[in-house]
Each structure stands twice: as C-alpha cells, then as structure tokens.
Amino acid sequence: MFDALLRMQLGPIVERLAEMETQLEDLYRRAESFCRIGICQQVDAASNTCKVSHGDLLTPAIRFFNPSAGAQTETRIPTVGEQCLLLNYGGGEGGVQSVALFGLNSDRFPPVSSVATLTRRRHQDGTQSDYDDASHTFNWVNGPTTVSGSREQVDIKVGAASLSLNAQSITLQIGGTSLLLDAGGAHFSGPVVDHQGRVISPR
C-alpha cells in the first residue's frame, strides 16, 4: 500500500522530468545545428542565394551576407567551394531559416596577405589591388597595367609606357622617349622631337 501511495505521489514528478528531458534533448539538438561550418555547392547570382553543404546535408537556396546592404551597398557573389559559417537562426532542421556568412579561408582559397598592415583584394582574373597602412602605399595591377602610389609619388605603367608623379615633377616615359615637367620647365628626351609636324631635334 505504501508503494502504491508513493507511485501515485511521484507519478506527476516523473512525467514532468521525462518532459524536461525531451525538451533538453531538443534544445541540445537545436544548439548543435545553430552554427556550423559549410561549403558552397551552388550559387544563383540572380536571386542572391546559394546552397551550402554541411556534413551529409545540403541546405535549400538560402541568402548570404554581403559586405553592406543599405544606402551604401556592395554585392560579392560567393564561389562554389568557398567555405562559410552557416547560421541557422530559426533552429529548424530544414535549413530554410539559415544564412551563410562567407569569407573563411581554406586550403583551396588561402589568404592573399599575411601582413597585418596590408589589405589586399585579388580577383579571379589576376587583377589585384592593395594598400599598406604602414608604408602608405597603394598598388593596382591589371595585366600589363600597374599603378603604384604613396604620399610622395605615384607611378603608372601601361605596357612600355610609364607615368611618374611626385611633389616636384611629372615624368612620362615610353620606351626611350621621355617628358619631364618640373619647376624649371618641360624637358624632352628621345631620338626625335616633333612640334606640329616639324622636327626640331636631330634624328
């Protein structure tokens, strides 16, 4: 009789403990799926969505973060194979309430700079721009065209032609021909100086 009374008194408590255990297991499961590392598998640039794999699972088409999306906006489409942080803000299992935060380097896409003061951007066609806060220098490279600048001087090179600007002078160089502008005047150097069709220097 005592056992029956005890079971009757403890029954609701045992049932409540079982409910709490189920709720805790659900919370643990949701917490584990809230934030995961994923890899981009498919991109739809038109809708600004992508599909991301994480483990054996694949999300549906979800949104991804951009550098900014307000009055000032910038779009950067992720690359298939790029690593991301997958945020499941809804805590569900379907992945519908997930967003992808790209920008994690990997073996496939390593960092392009290991210098703390150097900010560098490299495009897939090889075009590259960077700025070094320590030396105050800017560089831009696009095939045969390069632009290098600092607080003291700017150099521009397009194939065989180059242009140099500093606080005291401007120099334009094309092969063996150059034009220097400074406080003293204009200085030509080259095999021929032609002024309106008239050669004014010996060949």
From TrEMBL:
Residues 37-92 form the Gp5/Type VI secretion system Vgr protein OB-fold domain. It comes from the Bacteria. Pfam families: Phage_base_V. Coiled coil: none annotated. InterPro entries: Gp5/Vgr_OB, GpV/Gp45, Vgr_OB-fold_dom_sf. This is Baseplate assembly protein.
